Amino acid sequence: MAAGTDSSDDKQNPLATTSESSRDGPILPVTNVPTPQKPAIHPAFYVIIWIALSGSVILFNKKILDKEKGLNFPIFLTTWHLVFATIATQVLARTSKLLDGLKTVNMTGRVYLRAVVPIGFFFSLSLICSNKAYLFLSVSFIQMLKATTPVAVLLAGWALGKDRPTTKTFGNVSIIVLGVIIASYGEIKFVLIGFIFQALGVGFEATRLAMVEKLLNSAEYKMDPLVSLYYFAPVCAAMNFVLFLFLEASTISVDDIFRVGPVLLVINALVAFALNVSVVFLIGKTSSLVLTLCGVLKDILLVVISVAWIHDPVKPLQVFGYSIALGGLIYYRLGADKLKELSKEGVLRWNEYGTKHPAYRKAAVFGAGVLVLWFIFWTSFATYANTGTQININQTVDYAAPPPQ
User: What SUPFAM superfamilies does this protein's entry cite (predicted)?
Assistant: First the structure.
């Protein structure tokens, strides 16, 4: 087209020059090409917040549900969390956009009674049994037992007719079971009733997840964690309150609540609710792969923190068994092909990082080695200390006993 004519191409092309001199002169490279805008907050921030809140809720609940100094009423604590969540979700639905997902959910009274109520029933039982386990078991051992959740979900799916069992799948989950069995065998503070409560908690949670997949699997019922809490918290709070009236109301007192502190209970419920909010942002900013790997990382960090801070005794045999369970869990969720792809990409990036920052890479390797050695030493020392204390007590009793007549 001639230079003097007014073309529509010039109007459509935002980089076209508008002066005659620029048309006749040499074409210069464009230097102000707009760059894609980076997100204001890096996804790693949401990962860190989620891991921190998730670990805080578990450690917080363990501290509150202390047999000697805390509140020995797990049903009351669960009911309080659900009442707080019910009020908070109702307020957020009316004052913010965090619950805009409610507009896409076709919730009717029939669906609520046939799906939400039965799912909420198992959700309530899962929360109660899981909190009850904190009265008897260590945080580290509970986290090891939670590694069996995918196995329980698979079994629940088979029982409900949602999935068909296959030899390959059964073989994959068997690795997880084997690791947990080894970890359980090495547990020092094994309490059968606590183990039963945690196993029931995992089973009820697996049944809940399988029922969600079976009853609410269509697009019109897809919910994010916060919307799900909006629907499930009220019915779960009502169910838990009924159980509280029958099982704990006659024994709990105002002194028990004030021994823990009303302010501490409010903060505890706020942290638990903030965890659900953080999950919504985490799902929106990351992928399912990141969620899987971060979940494993969170469990490992909780075990380490429980050993270092709460002084939970962990034997090397448990570390070995838990490592097998976590390896089986990652393999089950990602698959062999994805693991090969990730390993190749990881090696490539590690080599590139070492080329650019050799000193930092050496420091990272050294720090990781020190951390591993420290953890091995600490677990061995904790095991020896607990075993030694028990032996010393027995020996003292034997020596203190009067000689036989």
Answer: Multidrug resistance efflux transporter EmrE
pLDDT digits (tens, 9 = 90+) for 127-163: 999 989 988 888 888 888 888 888 888 888 888 877 7
Indicate the burial class of 194 (C-beta count within 10 angstroms; 0-12, 13-18, 19 or more).
Answer: buried
Find all residues with CB under 8 Å of 255, minimum gap 6, and list them. Answer: none
What is the number of helices (H) and of strands (E) in the chain? 17, 0
Give the DSSP letter string of 114-150.
IIIHHHHHHHHHHHHHHHHHTTTS-HHHHHHHHTTHH
Q: What pLDDT score was predicted for residue 170?
A: 79
For residue 16 the two structure tokens come to 């076209």
- Locate the domains of the chain by residue range: 43-334
Question: b/e string for 339-362 if b means 16 or more Cβ within 10 A?
Answer: eeeeeeeeeeeeeeeeeeeeeeee
- Find the length of the chain: 405
The amino acid occupying position 229 is L
Distance CA 163, CA 160 (A): 8
Could you read off the pLDDT of 3-12 as tens digits, one per residue? 444 544 444 4
The neighbour count for residue 188, using CB atoms within 10 Å, is 16
Check: CB of residue 229 under 8 Å from CB of residue 88.
Answer: no
Residues 6+ apart with CB under 8 A from 323: 179
Tell me the C-alpha distance between 59 and 306, whole Å.
8
From the number of C-beta atoms within 10 Å of its C-beta (0-12, 13-18, 19+), residue 229 rates as buried
Q: Tell the burial category of 178 from Cβ atoms under 10 Å away from its Cβ (0-12, 13-18, 19+).
A: middle
Question: pTM for this structure?
Answer: 0.71
Backbone angles phi, psi at 68, to 5 degrees: -95, -45
Q: Which residues contact 120 (CB under 8 A, 6 or more apart)?
A: 232, 235, 236, 239
CA distance 292 to 237: 29
